[in-house]
Amino acid sequence: MSIADRLRAALVPHHDKTILLDGDDGGIPFEEGSQLTPAAVLMAITDRADPGVLFTVRNAALRRHPGQVAFPGGKIDPEDDGPIGAALREAEEEIGLPTSAVDVIGAVDVYRTVTGFEVTPVIGVVPPDLVLVPHDAEVSAVFEAPLSFILDTAHQVEKVAEWRGRERRYFEIMWEDHRIWGATAAMIVNIGRRIAGRL
User: Fold this and answer.
1) How many domains does the chain have?
2) Closest-CA residue to 48 (of 132, 147, 114)
3) I need a surface site. Which of 50, 108, 113, 135 has the fewest CB within 10 A?
């Protein structure tokens, strides 16, 4: 069975209380009454014997989250066909990933960040070893980490830090010299908990 078929079978809806919920970003609830910005990201999984996941390293000059590891993605524009359309558009703009190369599996648990974004992760399967061209103004590098590694709970380390005078809990995943943390790591944890034992 292909990785796409296995993912479709594994990503059945369920309501597990262990899923990190909207507004739970590190234990700090989003301020009530504040305006949320809808956004979407693409978790692109490579179709190989040992599937990988594509990540970007954000340009260090960006105002938001400079130098951090992230999935390709961004705000949902009015002309986008919902979260899936936005995730595919952003991936093409940021790293040159052709929309036609993505076998879309579907959207999963929405994640609300403390910075005011309501992010829908979209999972898609892509051919291995695509030639990707990062958009220099936004992305400084693209790398691939093994799916099995990032979904392994032994590598999903919970950390505690102080943020704006409050204790913040967050997840961190280290792959080689790349630090995957914050909302990106939390979305990985959610997806891992959803498909645990099913993939």
Assistant:
1) 1
2) 147
3) 50
